[in-house]
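From the pipeline queue, job 12 of 40. The input is one protein chain; the requested action is below.

Action: predict structure.
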Amino acid sequence: MTTPQRLGRTPPSPEHAVTSLRERKKARTRRTIQEEALRLFSEQGYEATTVEQIAEAAEVSPSTFFRYFPTKEDVVTQDDYDPLLLSAIMAQPAGVPPLTAIRAAFRSAFASIPPREMDQLLFRTRLSTTVPALRARTVDNLFSTMDALAGAVAERAGRDPRGPAVQALAGAVLGVMLPVLSTWVERDGTTPLPDLIDEAMGYLEAGLPL
């Protein structure tokens, strides 16, 4: 039998294996909590659903819920899409203009999201645009996303992430995303989100012609 050593590879250490297993278990727990929360929100409404009910449905304690999601709002508004998008931006070829790179990154990032997860995203977006407490939290998250986007753009261009040009570009991208998400919800997802984003980014890339 060929061993990893003979192939020139070092087998993972026991500590790495334990850490990887722990991270996978944490990811499963986080996903289960969010899925059960969304199911309960769909069945009985956001306001009527308590953290205790979510924890019971996910078979965890309320304290465990709060280790993964600091508030009930976070179980709707938190996701892993920012790192996915930023990774896609950084993967674009060097020399590609910033808006072109961001537009391509949106296409590739959202293409990797499976249909069931997109359905969940549509439901979370609907909640975020209709529940007042969630709308406020969503605005906070958008500012965090704008800062992260500015950081990625600045790193690619060798610019200051707090510079006015970089901040204006990041703000413009987030600005076109708001009506895109609103339109997606209004159409109940009948128009794919990646298509809506690509159309809006195309207008922005062309200088917003009317």
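Job complete. Residues 119 and 189 are 8 Å apart (CA to CA).
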